[in-house]
Amino acid sequence: MSETIESILHEDRVFPPSPEFTAQANIKPEDYEALKRKAEADHVGFWADLAREKITWAKPFTQVLDDSNAPFFKWFTDGELNVSYNCLDRHLDAKGDKTAIIFESDDGKVTRYTYKELTDEVSRFANALKNLGVKEGDRVVIYMPMIPQAVIAMQACARIGAIHSVVFGGFSAVALRDRIDDAGAKIVITADGGRRGGKTVPLKAAVNEALEEHCGCVEKVIVYERTGEEVEMVAGRDIWWHEAERGMPDYCEPVNVNAEHPLFLLYTSGSTGKPKGVQHSSGGYLLNAIVTNEWVFDLKDDDVFWCTADVGWITGHTYVAYGPLALGKTIVMFEGVPTYPHAGRFWEMCQNHGVTVFYTAPTAIRALMRFGDEIPSEYDLSKLRLLGTVGEPINPEAWMWYYTVIGKERCPIVDTWWQTETGAHMIAPLPGVTPLKPGSCTFPLPGIDAAVVDEEGNEIPHGNGGYLVIRKPWPSMLRTVWGDDERYVNTYWAQFNNRYYVAGDSARRDEDGYFWIMGRVDDVLNVSGHRLGTMEIESALVAHERVAEAAVVGRPDPVKGEAIVAFVVPRGDVPEGAEREALIKELREWVSKEIGPIAKPDDIRFGSNLPKTRSGKIMRRLLRAIARGEEITQDTSTLENPQILEQFMQK
Ligand code: WTA
After folding, report:
1. Which terminus of the chain, N or C, has less C-beta within 10 A?
2. Which mutation among 11, 285, 314, 390 tests ligand 1's pocket best, with the greatest number of atoms within 8 A of CB?
3. Interval between CA 140 and ligand 1 midpoint (Å)
């Protein structure tokens, strides 16, 4: 058991919201009770009413939930809307001059966009896309730095009904190529490079490499000039963003699409080697994006909301690019990293931009906590009123630091449990209502039927751990795995006969019914809040000529949550001394090249074989124990070659 889970299990402090917070909250205790009652009495009607109230429909829906082909659920099926219209145009009359985006670059330059300016930018770029032949339903891969043009590109796709698939800029050329091919993308949007921590990220070079050998679906590459460094442009294929926009009118009529029309794909790791293209809808996705920003982040018109996630992840979709804009709020975007040029960067930015609601990952909190309390105390954080976390369980120590040192015991912390697949928050506190327990994501939101069940799918008594499932469909649920309906059913539904959505996490409820997430039950690691499949890393390793076999496991890490430990069986002799060091270095670089720097193993061990059972199954539990440096208590008598354990124990 990891230290995080260990300390979470001993947590019993409770922090109720202050009367002042509750008095101003969007959702007060009586509203919460009313929402819950309504959702329980009429699940479908509950979502239908919200959808009518929160979304501007071009054509209102008459059918709410279509479960005729479960688990392929559809919501608001005959309705039509445009997501970009909902995020931009509909605010223009009242809020055209309001700031939509405050952008701070890596080197500290600040740029602002009003809603009017952002709408024009999106429209112009949408026209450029149309001009290059992009049509409704075409896939567009976006591989960009964390700059406003990433959001502009996403919104422009939404405006013309193209399906975007954002690939995190930290993924390698190989990972990018797989995603481009799987999505069958017609266009890739990138930048010459990005800036992070004073260094250049060579995005265009990676795109060139990715497109060297691939299926040939890509017709055009649009390149935003960000760093001005020289890049190789391929004639006939590549075009600069500003040239693509030349002469384009700054209004583009939004294309109304069906509510079920895919808004985007987002690739995420699972238990096999191949990432899945999680497919999201337009109407249902937008609805949960809106209500969770309203309920959980309590967003008001004068708020300045900073979600630190990159748009390459689902958090950057729902809480940067779509949700807050659909509500007409002001967001902060940041290109750089939390510790550059100094460890007070986040707090300095909160101060300078008057951030009121701040949302980040436990790994960032833990990393910044290490620099001490003095650094945050140098900045004026008095505007902050609400804090949030996402991505992994937060250990109570980090929670308390966030609560006292950053929030000055004034700001509630919303610990939000959700996934790429769920589209939006599922289990999270309502900051004006829910008494908080450090480390618990508290309760399911109204309209979300989450439960902890046993192997048979029966709800289990509080206090015990089990599978986390969602028992009723919800609007922002994934619709399928792109191009692989079978995988959708097998991964998320088959375990309980298509009755429940299976999250892949284990959880426990305490005596008060609070949910505590215990971690993944599948072969997925959570490294600094990023999901990585162990099989994905293993396939990358065995693709190296010196590797015969590999097994990857996680080890608890005080900052990253989990660290990656790889057990490698080399072709030929197990290397020693300098040769060993060189191979370790080479394999780390190799994985970085195959997947991305986030997947680099922290620790690589060599042995002449992997520990296997008689039936040939890799004994992963044993490897986990070795990785953690624990004493081996398991029966190892079935091992063919017990010496290999000694080999693997060697660092
Ligand atoms: C984990 C990120 C504990 C969980 C939005 C989930 C969490 C996976 C929390 C999804 C939380 C996310 N507490 N664990 N508040 N939030 N997780 O798809 O294991 O990148 O299944 O989505 O992160 O990761 P994903």
Report:
1. C
2. 390
3. 26
- 359 close to ligand 1 (CB < 6 Angstrom): no
Q: Is the pLDDT of residue 616 over 70?
A: yes
Distance of CA 294 to the CA centre of its chain: 19
User: For residue 530, how far is its CA from the centre of ligand 1 (angstroms)?
Assistant: 9
Which phi and psi angles does 209 have, rounded to 5°?
A: -65, -40
Ligand 1 contact via 315 beta carbon (within 6 Å): yes
Instruction: Please tell me the CATH code under which domain 528-649 is placed.
Output: 3.30.300.30
What is the rounded CA–CA span in Å between residue 537 and residue 539?
5
Q: DSSP states of 126-173 as a string?
A: HHHHHHTT--TT-EEEEE--SSHHHHHHHHHHHHHT-EEEE--TTS-H
Q: Is any ligand 1 atom within 6 A of the Cβ of residue 515?
A: no
Does ligand 1 come within 6 angstroms of the Cβ of 505?
yes
Q: At 560, is the secondary structure helix, strand, or coil?
A: coil
Give the pairing type, strands 220-224 and 238-240: parallel
Q: What residue's CA is closest to ligand 1, atom 6? A: 419
Index of the ligand 1 atom closest to the CA of residue 519: 19
CA distances from 194 to 122, 218, 304, 319, 591 (A): 20, 22, 25, 21, 21
Q: Using an 8 Å Cβ cutoff, are 144 and 150 in contact?
A: yes
- Element of type H or E holding 596: none
On the question of pLDDT at 642 being above 90, the answer is no
Instruction: Kindly state if the Cβ of 318 falls inside 6 Å of ligand 1.
Output: no
Q: How far is CA 625 from CA 384, 394, 569, 607, 634, in A?
A: 42, 23, 18, 16, 9
Q: Does the C-beta of 492 come closer than 6 Å to ligand 1? A: no
Which is the closest atom of ligand 1 to the Cα of 531?
A: 20
> Which SS3 state, helix, strand or coil, does residue 345 take?
helix
168 lines ligand 1 (CB under 6 A): no
Q: Which of 8-12, 380-384, 517-521, 569-573 has the highest mean pLDDT?
A: 380-384
**Short-list 54, 95, 47, 108, CA closest to 73:** 47
List the beta bridge partners of residue 66: 74
Please tell me the residue having the least CA distance from ligand 1 atom 4.
392
Question: Would you say the C-alpha torsion 502, 503, 508, 511 has a positive or negative sign?
Answer: negative
Structure tokens at 622: 């044993």
pLDDT (tens digit per residue) in 198-210: 999 999 999 999 9
Which residue ranges make up each domain of the chain?
528-649
